[in-house]
Amino acid sequence: MSTIDPPRADDDTGGASLPSRPDDLKLAFVASDTETAQLAKTQLEERYGSVPPEEAEVIVALGGDGLMLETLHRFMGIGTPIYGMHRGSVGFLMNSYDLDGLCERIVRAKPARLLPLLMSARTIGGEEVQACAINEVSLLRETRQTAKIRIRIDDVVRLEELICDGVMVATPAGSTAYNLSAHGPIIPIGAQVLCLTPISAFRPRRWRGAILPHAARVTFEILEAEKRPVSAVADYTEVRDVVRVDVREDPTTPLTLLFDPEHDLEERVLKEQFLT
User: What is the pLDDT of residue 77?
Assistant: First the structure.
């Protein structure tokens, strides 16, 4: 059995302890490889000092949304809040960058609690692979032929055959990413639901997906798997030639992001629904 990014939990408190004072705040800094992000990291470490991530009260991530996703995966399970500052391209999950007043901003920040998805995939060859996803688990056709997929929710067949380019299960945090590009709904962070969204559905042509309870167990069974091969992707972990994929929320590994009160994540998700 091969395992990638298995779920871990150091405690069962269900959340991270948040800093309450700016004095002597222990910070760790991580940054993308760009010159802009690396320069910001150097300047911030000179100003505020730094400790190893395992000893930090808060991890400060410098880059774009890709770096934030990588940081969440890297430190999944240790319970340390992450405060992002935008030094990349897309910065939906990041706060604005400012060298000054960082500790005060962190103490004032509002937490957003995220729960990842756990994907268990079985391949044609019988290999079992597990991986975690913060945004979405997506199934995608590998060849020119459309995929044929049966969908079960909590062991009940809800769609006997979906003919499509693919299908995904997205978290509220991921609802504004690939899910939105596939015309899925935007979900508020605290809604406790998941998005089940088809990608270019051919049959049933008018099926637009579903909103599921956050505790739902979703099973995808690949029909004609050898003729119509399908890959499963949990964020950036890909498993090719799958025959069955199970997806569920992982309540044992909560993640905490920190946002400035004037730009909190709930407000950003709300605004996104009114963009024209």
Answer: 80
Q: Is this model's pTM higher than 0.85 or not?
A: no
Cα–Cα distances in angstroms (integers) from residue 3 to residues 88, 119, 172, 177, in the given order: 30, 10, 25, 25
Are residues 149 and 70 located together in one domain of the fold?
no
β-strand pairing of 58-63 with 27-31: parallel
Tell me whether residue 6 is in a domain: no
What whole-number distance in Å separates Cα of residue 60 and Cα of residue 29? 5
- 140 and 212 share one domain: yes
CATH number for position 194:
2.60.200.30
Please tell me which residue in 12, 24, 65, 154 is annotated as part of the active site.
Answer: 65
What is the distance between the alpha carbons of residues 61 and 227, in angstroms, rounded to a whole number? 43
Structural domain including 34 reads 11-115+254-272
SS3 156: strand
Question: Using one digit for the tens of pLDDT, what is the confidence trace for 72-115?
Answer: 999 998 889 999 999 987 777 899 999 999 999 999 999 988 99
Question: In sequence order, what are the residues at sequence separation of 6 or more whose Cβ sits closer than 8 angstroms to the Cβ of residue 123?
Answer: 129, 239, 240, 241, 242, 243
The CA distance from 135 to 213, in Å, is 16
- Scanning 23-169, the segments in alpha helix (DSSP H) are 35-48, 65-74, 102-108
Active site residue 33: no
pLDDT tens column, 125-160: 999 999 999 999 999 999 999 999 999 999 999 999
In a domain, 1, yes or no: no
